[in-house]
Amino acid sequence: MSSNKHKFNIPEEVINTSAVLSSAGFENFLVGGCVRDLLLERDPKDWDLTTNATPVEIEALFEHTFYENDYGTVGVVVDPPASPSEAWRAGSARVVEVTPYRTESKYSDFRRPDEVAWAKTLEEDLKRRDFTVNALAYDIANQKLTDLFDGGADLKKKLIRTVGNPDERFGEDALRILRALRFASELGFAIESETLASIEKNKGLLAHISKERIKDEFIKIVASPAPSIALGLATQLGILEYITPEFTKGIGMEQNQAHAFTVWEHLLRSLDHAAKKDFPLHVRLAALFHDIAKPHTRKWLNEQWTFYGHDVVGARITRNVMTELKFPKEIMEKVIKLVRWHMFFSETETITLSAVRRVVRNVGPELIWDLMNVRACDRVGTGRPKETTYRLRKYHSMIEEVMRDPISVKQLNVTGGDIMKVSDTPPGPHIGYILEILLSEVLEDPTLNERKHLESRIFALMTLTPEELEKQGKAARAKNASEDEEEVEKIKEKYKVE
Ligand code: ATP
Ligand code: MG
Q1: Domain that holds residue 214
Q2: Residues 258 and 393 in one domain
Q3: Over the chain, what HEC string results?
Q4: What tens digit of pLDDT does each residue of 20-72 get?
């Protein structure tokens, strides 16, 4: 055991929470990910204190608290915000998580502990933690680090190593296998060799782990800076099938000449590009899933492999896999759409404005730029030459063109029906003329798009002769159309395309 003095930058609210516990006579230490991250000079995601106080004793010391999970963790809200709903969530920076000392308890179904077992000492609590780098504790008041398992040395060596015997630790909770891979990706660490050998030996235990827990670690892997570290290890070690067997089907699968890589390697490279660009989770998942159906649709045709329909089938497989992993519906629907339409911009010759309009309608305006990003990941992941910037600008310009609000009489605060009512006239060409005239006036001065004013203009226009109204109406229509063209020209100019 080694202990030494360290000084860290710790938020005041965290220091205060610790001080309140100390003044009440309770031991307390920062522990887990935050201590690891402080030593690595990374920003901790959340702040965890471990203590010899019980949940009831913790609750009694603070004004705003909530129970966070079944493990006795008390969330202490250190800065109650104006709107309560936003901070009463786990993981908020405004919450310090305080957990009583625990010890390893039995996992008879390999899934979750049968009961939460409290411990008396810090040492017992640190012993039940997964990896040495996650088993460091820090006494804030005394600036003293407790490092019972040489976690500090492993941090320097960039190693993930279990606390104690790896076979026992993975036997207690096989999720730790995925956690080891996750930390390898998040921290860019290697897995120490005995730990690695034990992972390979015990991987079958992952079959007992609930899909929710697997999904949570899988999400963290995908959200990490280099997901292919964890997923590459999972490939080598035969662990992918415990996330989903669908991932294993593309391993080693050759594609046609346009592809330098096998299906699975291409998906990993696409995902890594999404991570490199720091794209949001649904884009990363779409990058990983976009060719998931290639193994299902591969056919040898005219001297090459074809994958017709892999986008359509891929959307279905994505739905099945994400449902099985119990992903939230909202993110799942986004990923499915992106997978379904990922081929759109690859058929370069057939991309017309009306085709772009259709795809915008299909994926939705809120996802169209994400679709372009998935396409970028796809291309980079193929190792194909970069898109000519002209073509890319052209697509962007077309998307913006179909997404703009076209100039139309629909923008007016009166309709043709209103005109008939106000003027007490039956339908006829004069309605269209009046609308076009009103629109040209409103385009000139948007403040005129006001009901009362428009009604008085309708009265005035009705006093014109039919011939005069037709003349003015046609002139207004031509002018409105040219304004619309000007809008399109502006977009094209912005993207420097024809
Ligand atoms: P992150 O920064 O991603 O939150 P973390 O290390 O805080 O990383 P958590 O999943 O939040 O990871 O867990 C907090 C701590 O609890 C870990 O550092 C570890 O000490 C312990 N821990 C979490 N899950 C397990 C587990 N399955 N087995 C043993 N210890 C665990
Ligand atoms: Mg954490």
Answers
A1: 158-243
A2: yes
A3: CEEEECCCCCCHHHHHHHHHHHHCCCCEEEECHHHHHHHCCCCCCCEEEEECCCHHHHHHHCCCEEECCCCCCEEEECCCCCCHHHHCCCCCCCEEEEEECEECCCCCCCCCCCCCEECCCHHHHHHCCCEHHHCCEEECCCCEEEECCCHHHHHHHCEECECCCHHHHHHHCCHHHHHHHHHHHHHCCEECHHHHHHHHHHHHHHHHCCHHHHHHHHHHHHCCCCHHHHHHHHHHHCCHHHHCHHHHHHCCCCCCCCCCCCHHHHHHHHHHHHHHCCCCHHHHHHHHHCCCCHHHHCEEECCEEECCCHHHHHHHHHHHHHHHCCCCHHHHHHHHHHHHCCCHHHCHHHCCHHHHHHHHHHHCCCCHHHHHHHHHHHHHHHCCCCCCHHHHHHHHHHHHHHHCCCCCHHHCCCCHHHHHHHHCCCCCHHHHHHHHHHHHHHHHCHHHCCHHHHHHHHHHHHCCCHHHHHHHHHHHHHHHHHHHHHHHHHHHHHHCCC
A4: 999 999 999 999 999 999 999 999 989 999 999 999 999 999 999 998 777 78
- Is residue 164's pLDDT more than 70? yes
Ligand 1 lined by 126 (C-beta under 6 Å) = no
Q: Which of 76-80, 100-104, 324-328 has the lowest mean pLDDT?
A: 76-80
Same-domain check for residues 31 and 90 = yes
State the distance from the centre of ligand 2 to the C-alpha of 37, rounded, in angstroms: 10
pTM: 0.87
How far is ligand 1, taken at its centre, from the CA of residue 48, in Å? 10
Ligand 1 within 6 A of 32 CB?
yes
Domain assignment of residue 498, yes or no: no
Residues with CB under 5 A from ligand 2 (ion): 33, 46
Is residue 486 situated within a structural domain? no
Best residue among 36, 130, 213, 219 to mutate for probing ligand 1's pocket (most ligand atoms within 8 Å of CB) is 130
In a domain, 83, yes or no: yes
Residue at a domain's end among 243, 278, 303: 243
Are 335 and 418 found together in one domain? no
Q: What's the CATH number where 113 sits?
A: 3.30.460.10
pLDDT in tens, 101-121: 998 776 656 556 567 788 999
232 with 263, same domain: the answer is no
Structural domain includes residue 494: no
User: Do 225 and 324 belong to one domain?
Assistant: no
